[in-house]
């Protein structure tokens, strides 16, 4: 079997984050508040991740409805920060998490 | 020693019954018959205690867990407590509509094993004609139910040439993840090591192939690679460290820090059917035995890597160095490392090595 002969493989391209991407959590990833540890956990098939405060504030806005541009503006207002800088940070975050299959673009 | 933090995960082996007979099965040699399995109420009580204890993930495994009629009830109870559930299945003989039922009960994820990427390999390794075709059908049902899918490919000498095809298979089935997991040589796999041990060059070639694919398939398919111990430079952090954040429960409730822990003769293990999980986790002698760093000998004790690999696998140290507190011989710093490299090299070219298939009753329980 060669790569080109398999449609599913030919179609499989790395998703790239853009200001128009509408990120969401994939079906196999779940954000869960752990009452015992008093912390938010990101549950995935083999791993449990403990996102920091900044990651959490981004993840909470990844609802598949808002695009990255909107998410960035919301965060810029919330943190009283520069919108352009925030958007660069959110784009980098989204690309990294998408590459690791814990965010869908 | 201070009290341990809360555990994160449990591997729950609901049954030892299985339609396949893979010669590297991670179940013990002494397989339990159905009359030794815990009933539904007992599992529900254990899972409730687990959630109280801080467990966030339960891997429902076997044997073949879908043989348990109460699987949807167990999934539902875990989901109600917010626990992430991962079903580990061979995908053979799964009842019509079960995956939908499990999805509705709140199942988070399915891991489906393939013994080969080619039908003849899958059928040979599981000793089950038609197994591959049934697995393809199971994968389609899992995806149709909208459940996320990981393909698990245990790698050894008889299928190490199929790794590229495993990657193609995982992509064609719409899987999110692929585990290319070299067989670990305990229990059944240890018994069949001569038939299964791959050659070093093949392992190196596969490691490079996987690395290239991981890069090429970023964001498309996550590929986890488990290196084979015997050819490693450093040991793996077995179970993430002994009784550090995960443990396992066998079909009769025996609760152990890892699959193979019963192979350490001086340890005895409590049953979660009788003893509260918090007590087993927090202060049972078997869990305390190799927790943390106090028990370590040199070269582990003063090693900078001890917080990375926790000295490796206690069971492998027991088996190959004769002392469960020794450095795992998979480590290049172990005095026994040369011996296991030699064993691997010798077994990897063994001619006419036959496989003993995994079956209940091949080895009788004590």
Q: What do these coordinates show?
A:
The complex is a heterodimer of chains A (105) and B (366). Chain A has 105 residues and is an alpha+beta fold. Helices cover 38% and strands 11% of the residues of chain A. In chain A, strands 1-2-3 form a 3-stranded antiparallel sheet, with no helix packed on it. In chain A, helix 3 crosses helix 4. Chain A is globular. The relative contact order of chain A is 0.21. Mean pLDDT of chain A is 89; it is low at 1-8. Chain B is α/β, with parallel strands linked by helices. Chain B contains 14 helices and 9 strands. Chain B has helices spanning 40-53, 71-80, 98-105, 119-126, 131-144, 163-172, 187-191, 193-196, 200-216, 277-283, 285-288, 306-309, 314-321, 337-348, and strands spanning 9-13, 57-61, 84-89, 109-113, 149-155, 177-182, 222-226, 246-249, 255-256. In chain B, strands 7-6-5-4-3-2-1-8-9 form a 9-stranded mixed sheet, covered by helices on one side. In chain B, strand 2 (57-61), helix 2 and strand 3 form a beta-alpha-beta unit. In chain B, helix 2 packs parallel to helix 3. Chains A and B meet through strand 1 of A and helix 6 of B.
């Amino acid at each position: 079997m060669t790569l080109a002969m398999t449609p599913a493989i030919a179609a499989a391209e790395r998703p790239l984050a853009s200001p128009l991407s509408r990120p969401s959590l994939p079906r196999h990833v779940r954000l869960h508040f752990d009452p015992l540890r008093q912390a938010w956990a990101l549950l995935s098939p083999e791993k449990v991740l403990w996102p920091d405060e900044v990651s959490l504030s981004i993840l909470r806005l990844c609802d598949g409805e808002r695009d990255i541009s909107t998410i960035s503006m919301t965060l810029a207002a919330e943190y009283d920060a520069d919108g352009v800088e925030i958007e660069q940070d959110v784009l980098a975050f989204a690309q990294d998490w998408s590459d690791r299959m814990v965010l869908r673009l | 020693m201070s009290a341990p933090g809360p555990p994160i995960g449990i591997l729950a082996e609901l049954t030892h019954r299985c339609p396949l007979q893979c010669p590297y099965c991670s179940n013990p040699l002494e397989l339990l018959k159905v009359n030794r399995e815990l009933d539904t109420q007992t599992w529900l009580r254990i899972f409730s205690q687990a959630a109280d204890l801080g467990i966030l993930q339960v891997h429902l495994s076997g044997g073949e867990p879908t043989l348990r009629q109460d699987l949807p009830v167990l999934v539902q109870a875990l989901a109600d407590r917010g626990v992430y559930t991962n079903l580990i299945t061979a995908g053979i003989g799964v009842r019509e509509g079960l995956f939908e039922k499990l999805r509705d009960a709140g199942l988070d994820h399915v891991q489906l094993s393939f013994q080969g990427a080619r039908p003849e390999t899958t059928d040979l390794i599981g000793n089950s004609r038609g197994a591959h075709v049934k697995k393809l059908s199971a994968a389609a049902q899992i995806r149709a139910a909208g459940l996320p899918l990981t393909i698990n490919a245990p790698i050894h000498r008889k299928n190490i040439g199929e790794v590229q095809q495993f990657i193609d298979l995982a992509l064609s089935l719409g899987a999110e993840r692929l585990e290319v997991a070299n067989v670990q040589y305990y229990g059944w796999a240890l018994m069949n090591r001569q038939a299964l041990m791959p050659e070093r060059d093949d392992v190196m070639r596969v490691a490079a192939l996987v690395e290239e694919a991981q890069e090429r398939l970023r964001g498309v398919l996550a590929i986890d690679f488990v290196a084979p111990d015997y050819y490693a430079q450093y040991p793996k952090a077995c179970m993430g460290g002994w009784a550090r954040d995960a443990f396992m429960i066998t079909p009769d409730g025996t609760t152990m820090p890892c699959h193979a822990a019963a192979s350490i003769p001086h340890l005895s293990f409590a049953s979660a059917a009788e003893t509260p999980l918090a007590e087993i986790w927090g202060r049972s002698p078997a869990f305390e035995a190799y927790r943390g760093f106090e028990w370590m000998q040199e070269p582990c004790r003063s090693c900078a890597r001890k917080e990375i690999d926790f000295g490796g696998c206690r069971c492998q140290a027991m088996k190959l160095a004769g002392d469960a507190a020794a450095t795992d011989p998979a480590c290049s710093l172990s005095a026994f490392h040369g011996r296991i490299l030699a064993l691997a090299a010798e077994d990897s070219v063994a001619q006419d090595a036959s496989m003993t298939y995994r079956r209940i009753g091949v080895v009788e329980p004590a």
